[in-house]
Amino acid sequence: MTSTVARLPSRPERRDPAWRGRVFWTLAALLLLWPALVLTEFKPWLMIEPGTLKSTLRFLSDFVPPKVEPEFLWLVARETWRTVAIATAGMALALLLAVPLTLLSVRALSVSALSGRMALMPAAVRQLVRWILILLRSVPELIWALVFVRVVGLGPTAGVLAIALTYSGMLGKVYGEILESGESHATVTLLRNGSGRLQAFFYGLLPQNAPELTSYSVYRWECAIRSSAVLGFVGAGGLGQQMDASMKMFNGAEVSTMLLVFMALVGFADKASAWLRKALG
Fold first, then answer.
1. SS (H, E, C) the chain
2. 6 — phi, psi (to 5°)?
3. pLDDT tens digits, residue range 239-273?
4. Angle at 279 between CA 276 and CA 280, to 5 degrees
């Protein structure tokens, strides 16, 4: 007869063994964040002061009810369509700039790099192209819009050019990273057998990276719609410019209507881009 000894479960720890590390990193994050909050004069408690609350409620009360007159709704519909057109035209120009710059910056398409180290001249051109992409994407589209409003005047042209320049830098950078991170064996084989760079791109790099490139392009088009509305506040046309005019006239009902339309537009763009990514992916 064998005796069995009942094993009692070990007593669980009442204290998290990693609590010291978590407390340390939480305090370190707060210490690093505090100077930034002081520098930006972040004072959220000002929003609940009686005077601020009264002004806020009075401002929001002007938004109700929204303006739904047919003539105004037709104006909003026209400016909404113009906003989409600005974003689409800007993306088209951005692609025309980004694709050639991407092909020049991708190492996998360099013939001189087949032997190992890229030649001096191709390496210099590649680095120059990368600097150009950095310059284009480092300047926000809002700044480009302010510049072009003074060059070409008020209107959608400034918004199209602003989106084209900034987004060409963004697209070129991400396109280059996607192509560089992909499998380059087929591309190298084509180049070693006498194929041209464009042939190596279309038959080697592009087929395997097309879904990811398409997905990012559609996402950027969605972002361009949001940007085109913001650019209107500096005179670049579209729904944002009309909204800015209504806000300056303290017409809250018109602003409320345009905000609702803009939220619907962003929601539609999000659904459309998701559908396109699914269909093309």
1. CCCCCCCCCCCCCCCCCCHHHHHHHHHHHHHHHHHHHHHCCCCHHHHHCHHHHHHHHHHHHCCCCCCCCHHHHHHHHHHHHHHHHHHHHHHHHHHHHHHHHHHHHCHHHCCHHHHCCCCHHHHHHHHHHHHHHHHHHHCCHHHHHHHHHHHHCCCHHHHHHHHHHHHHHHHHHHHHHHHHHCCCHHHHHHHHCCCCHHHHHHHHHHHHHHHHHHHHHHHHHHHHHHHHHHHHHHCCCCHHHHHHHHHHCCCHHHHHHHHHHHHHHHHHHHHHHHHHHHHHC
2. -70, 130
3. 888 888 888 887 888 888 888 888 888 788 778 77
4. 85
- Rg of the chain over Cα atoms, rounded to whole angstroms, equals 27
What domains are there in the chain, each with its CATH number? 70-280 (1.10.3720.10)
For 195-225, write each residue's pLDDT tens digit: 777 777 777 777 788 888 888 888 888 888 8
